[in-house]
Amino acid sequence: MTCIVATMFLALLTVLNYCVGKRSVLYPPFIFSFVWFADAAIFWYAPIQVSDVHSITWWVITIGASLFSLGGLLSRALPKVAFSAKVCELSHPTVSRIGLQLLLLICLAEVPLMIMDVLQHGGGGSLGELLVRSRQFYVDMAEQGESWGLVVGSLPIFSIAVAILCRIEDCGILFWTAAMASAVCCILTGGRSYLLLLFLSLTVIHLLIKRKDSLVDAAKYVCIPVLIFASIFIALIFFDKDVSSYRGSIAAILTNFVLAYIIVPIPALDYVLMHSSEYANAPHHTFEFVLAVMSKFGAPANTPKMHDAYLFVPLPTNVYTVYKFFFTDFGVALALAAVLLIGFVQTAIYLRARAGNKVAIFLTALLVYPAVLSIFDDLYSAGGLVLLSKATLVATVYFAFLNRIYPGIRLPHLTFPAFTARTVSGGDR
């Protein structure tokens, strides 16, 4: 199979998924096949010279997209009660907004903590220099196998979860406050992935709640927000990336940090598939979080580093699409089976979200992010799964407890004994 054939096949699969998903752009198989079609088309036309991609890689990509779509079809075979049944502990009506206000206060308190962390690791200078140096500090920690700690490791995803909850509950000013605070936290991490997660999640929830998820309606509703986000996303390159070696060439900077980011993971995956023997003893990634817990309790575990090793194809990259870790951990057959399972589970959650379940809406908004970035990296397992678990924990606490906080004060009911009226002798005078 060639790139041209794969592109055409993925285009047809995308159209088919759009029809099967009842013309919804939020149907997970449509999203998955569309991003892979766009990636293959850009690879076809891109002016960047990269290593040759063999037929086996295009077969894995097309079969993977087909199996994800098949998983979506199989999820429709579930009984209707699976999409309408409610979990009593998470289905209480929202009594007040006290719980959201409490989460928002915590979210607002994160901003100065993030600023202090950037100042501590950035060392002074302009905003761009601060972000570049602090980001490099985090990268160095990851390459040494160290965790990022509470501030960068948990606060940004917490703020994103709060913003999502505020949008689900349609809280107006609370939502906009949470969204702005979360955006600031995401930018202060020195990266752009958290900002992308925030934008995608809020966009998905907006389209779901407004029932504007057809291609035409979605284009009308998100056209301007997408343009604004794309401008900010590209502009951040000049603030959190070291672009000094490009000597001010805007075209070279955009080519390296936008176009190359999209297409380089494909030849990187091709190298892994063609040189599988080199990864025979690679550490396990899929259940990395389990190994990390075991190692903390003293059990022998070969835990991988946060960032993968660099490969030159010939451009440097350390991301290998969604398939690499499933392939190195389980082999080709089980890797494709994992994609089938992911498609099944993600589509089932989406169908529950369509039925109005708030927890499912929350999860659907989060899961669009790993589907979109499947052309870039694996965010369904390992570190991506930990990230989603942290956000889901916040939502679980809110829907189980915090949305039932009642601000009123109930006084005890006092009762007094009744006395029989006494009649005064002599009658009235």
Please tell me about this protein's structure:
Strands 1-2 form a two-stranded antiparallel ribbon. The protein has helices spanning 3-20, 28-45, 55-75, 81-84, 98-122, 127-143, 149-168, 173-188, 193-210, 215-235, 237-240, 250-263, 265-274, 288-296, 323-330, 332-354, 358-372, 382-400, and strands at 311-312, 316-317. The chain starts with a helix and ends in a 29-residue tail after the last helix. It is mainly alpha-helical. α7 packs antiparallel against α8 (173-188), α8 packs antiparallel against α9 (193-210) and α15 packs across α16.
The portion of residues assigned to helices is 55-70%
Overall 3D shape: globular
Number of helices: 18
Q: Report Rg.
A: 26 Å
Average pLDDT score: 81
How are the strands ordered across the major sheet?
A: 1-2
- How far the N terminus sits from the C terminus, by CA atoms, comes to 115 Å
Per DSSP E runs of 2 or more residues, the count of β-strands stands at 2
Our count of domains comes out at 1
